[in-house]
Design a protein that fits this description.
Length: 348
């Protein structure tokens, strides 16, 4: 990692370098220099992202596009160039690194502590989407093909189940059945997109609360981060991913499932912010926002279960069965959304 730090054009000499963040995919380190400059150094996961040059072309294009459109430089991520002027660096082991300027006076939350935080995050993701409406989508590489293609996620699940390489399927039959009974309906949003009823647009695709930076002082959202999966997608899935993560009453890997459930007030706060920030949503998109929440939660739970069956090779885990715990919270949340469906759809 030391080699990587010195590959970038820093303001001063690095004095501290600490592991930071809770993401399941990349590794982030916060660097401080003797002149007080701060940076975020990230090792990009090359098992998850098979074409890092293409990924970094996307990130370069999106960050530069955003930088020209925000009111203040701190409202967009800015890449720090390497000593030879590139956007990223590959070390001797083949590991790939990039660095961002630290967004000053920013703070990031794993859970919203108030409806206002969550409303603010909706404004951030909604504005990001509005801003990206003018971005030439054909310039973007698909960093993970079929990322939010729920029927394809079911195919991957079926393959993992058939292989059952860790011999774990026998212990999770209840979980398997939960997803199988919901498979038939899970492709409805992808189908509507294919029929031209839902527009394909440049979306964030990882629209979680912990991918928004807030101003420490004002608690206003300032910037959206984690741009690795920015590519054409469905706005209803972005809306849904935010709800899945931030409107759950429990953490994503909570083991006490009695705590899991949809916080309807949080849901409404996010909906309000998103609709305000995204005036160009079509009627059809607005009509399917609740479906986006339900189906992306189902999809995410299915991805956790698939990874559990495959031996936890995709999502980083800190303890045994963490992916199974994550899968179970998503199941609980789907179930609660089904129970509160009338209230969810009535809010729209
Ligand atoms: P991951 O793939 O691990 O989720 P992120 O890009 O989301 O990686 O970064 C992890 C965390 O690091 C974020 O949640 C945020 O708190 C912090 N972070 C990332 N970039 C910046 C930045 N430019 N300024 C301040 N904090 C940042
Ligand atoms: C991963 O890295 P992170 O935590 O931002 C995953 C998302 C999942 C999320 C679940 C590239 O995101 O799709 O929704 O975990 N990112 C990728 O917490 O697969
Ligand atoms: Mg993140």
């Amino acid at each position: 990692m030391e080699q990587a730090v010195f590959a970038f054009r820093l303001n001063g000499k690095p004095v501290t370098c600490e592991r930071y963040g809770f993401g399941h995919i990349n590794k982030t380190y916060r660097i401080v220099t003797n002149w007080g400059s701060m940076y975020e150094l990230q090792q990009i996961n090359n098992r998850v992202f098979s074409d890092i040059p293409a990924l970094m072309e996307n990130v370069g294009a999106v960050t530069r596009y955003a930088a020209q459109r925000v009111r203040h430089p701190m409202e967009a991520l800015r890449l720090v160039p390497t000593l030879d002027g590139k956007d990223w660096y590959q070390d001797e082991n083949g590991d790939c690194w990039r660095m961002y300027h630290h967004i000053e006076n920013s703070i990031c939350f794993q859970r919203p502590s108030s409806q206002n935080d969550f409303y603010e995050s909706a404004k951030a993701f909604g504005s990001f989407q509005e801003m990206m409406a003018g971005f030439p989508a054909e310039k973007l590489h698909e960093t993970i093909p079929n990322f939010h293609n729920t029927p394809v996620r079911f195919q991957q699940f079926h393959a993992a189940l058939a292989a059952d390489s860790m011999d774990r399927a026998k212990d999770v039959q209840k979980e398997i059945d939960f997803f199988l009974t919901r498979e038939a309906n899970a492709g409805m949003l992808v189908e509507l997109q294919k029929q031209g009823k839902l527009p394909l647009q440049v979306t964030h695709n990882d629209a979680m609360l912990n991918n928004v930076l807030f101003d420490r002082t004002s608690r206003k959202a300032v910037c959206v981060v984690d741009l690795d999966t920015v590519m054409p997608g469905l706005s209803v899935y972005d809306f849904g991913d935010s709800i899945r993560f931030g409107a759950n009453k429990a953490a994503e890997d909570e083991t006490d499932l009695s705590k899991v459930g949809l916080d309807l007030e949080m849901y409404r706060a996010y909906l309000k912010g998103y609709l305000e920030a995204c005036p160009s949503l079509t009627q059809e998109e607005v009509k399917h926002l609740a479906d986006g929440a339900r189906i992306i939660t189902l999809e995410c739970g299915l991805r956790f279960l698939t990874d559990y069956l495959q031996g936890d090779t995709y999502f980083a885990t800190q303890r045994a069965q963490q992916n199974l715990d994550r899968c179970r919270t998503q199941m609980g949340l789907v179930q609660d959304m089904e129970n509160q469906w009338d209230a969810m759809t009535a809010s729209v």
